[in-house]
């Protein structure tokens, strides 16, 4: 089995069997982190839900004797520092789960 993972917040994972058929797939699980600064400013940020990702990957991989995972690494650049930070955090979460 080969499991491919797109690490974006709107990414997904798919498992393909030895004959090329899709065994399973899922959209990247996320949650929204809400916080309030000391100045009272509220903000929200989406992040990958590591626990749910671990459960979904385990369910995919348990259906096979062996699995190879292909992970799309974090790119070297982004539109902004905040976007790059978010991609780095989420890539780290996925690597931690793997």
Secondary-structure map:
Blueprint: E1 2-5, E2 12-16, E3 22-27, E4 30-36, E5 42-48, H1 50-61, E6 68-71, H2 81-97
Parallel strand pairs: 1-6
Antiparallel strand pairs: 1-2, 2-3, 4-5
Helix pairs in contact: 1-2
How would you characterize the overall build of this protein?
The chain has 98 residues and is an alpha+beta fold. It is built from two helices and six strands; from the N terminus they run E-E-E-E-E-H-E-H. The strands form two sheets. The protein has a four-stranded mixed sheet, covered by helices on one side. A two-stranded antiparallel ribbon has the order 4-5. A hairpin with a 5-residue loop joins strand 4 and strand 5. Helix 1 crosses helix 2. The two termini are 15 Å apart. The model has no long low-confidence stretch (mean pLDDT 86).
Task: Give me a quick take on this structure.
This protein is 30% helix and 34% strand.
Essential attributes:
elongated, four-stranded mixed beta sheet, alpha+beta, two-stranded antiparallel ribbon, 98 residues
Tally of separate helices:
2
**Termini gap:** 15 Å
Radius of gyration: 16 Å
How many beta strands in the DSSP annotation? 6
Q: Choose one word for the global shape.
A: elongated
Task: Provide mean pLDDT, rounded.
Answer: 86
Proportion of strand residues: 25-35%
Helix content: 25-40%
- Which spans have pLDDT < 50 for at least 5 consecutive residues? none
Task: For the largest sheet, list the strands in their spatial order.
Answer: 3-2-1-6
